[in-house]
Amino acid sequence: MPPTPTIDVPATYEALGLSHIRISHHPLGAPTATPVVIVTLNRPEKHNAFTPQMADSLTLAFNMFHVDPRVKTVVLTGAGKMFCAGMDLDIGFGDGEGRAADFRDIGGRVSLAMHRCHKPTIVALQGSAVGVGMTMTLPAAIRICHEKSKYGFVFARRGLTIESCASYFLPRLVGFSRAMHLITTGGVYPPSTKHFGDLFTEVLPDASQVLPRALELAQDVAENVSPLASSMSRALMWEGGDSPEAAHLLESRVFHHMIGQRDYKEGVNSFFEKRKPRFETDPREGSCPDYPWWPELNISREYSASKNSKL
């Protein structure tokens, strides 16, 4: 078996020079990585249109967060008035040459990195988003948006099919009927339309409220939620049993593992002692022995922190 590739984790994310995104600590300017980090799509002059460089940067960032025990929650937002205008059509997707079997869509790489990251992502859509600007948010745990902005899955209107693993995530989030309407019309809608269902868990009247609210939620999660319990619970939701009985057996197995972990004891003790918990278990080390319990296609290798990481 080939060795597991490693990844360098920096002492500070704010010094990274990643293309087309910016990573900030919360609070801003903290000298080392904080429990909450902010990832900002940073092409405001192009309405944060998606590029291969942005995809590479986002994929690398989520891989780093995955192996960095200092990071508890990730907030993803956009610079300027728009969250993301979709793919930068001046760059395009290539010419369709080469073998289809060798092609991997760049949005899908970002979605899988976010999905596989043990740390939950909260998306602050402070402005409008279409295309990959929408599909790449689907693996996130929470999406908060602005009520006067517009959102849509416009692929069919550009002669394209959905990507970024949206055929898996979208119908599970909004239901097949709503998902079919969204991808069939390719329409752009306000977040209040019934076609989105509960895709956006909060819709705020002022764009300036979106990021602060996402950070408020992220801080609460980082301070009060076990990263291990959160990661295992989200995995149970996405990769659970295919019947009530199968779900019961799987949940029981994972629950049995969890009650033997330090985080359970800390959660109970902090409750009785009326204090904030101090959850310290790294999800990569505390996951149940058979995690992942589902067959996972080998499209990329798992990363671990390298010896050069500044942890």
Automatic annotation (TrEMBL):
Pfam families: ECH_1. SUPFAM superfamilies: ClpP/crotonase. It comes from the Eukaryota. Belongs to the enoyl-CoA hydratase/isomerase family. This is Enoyl-CoA hydratase AKT3-1.
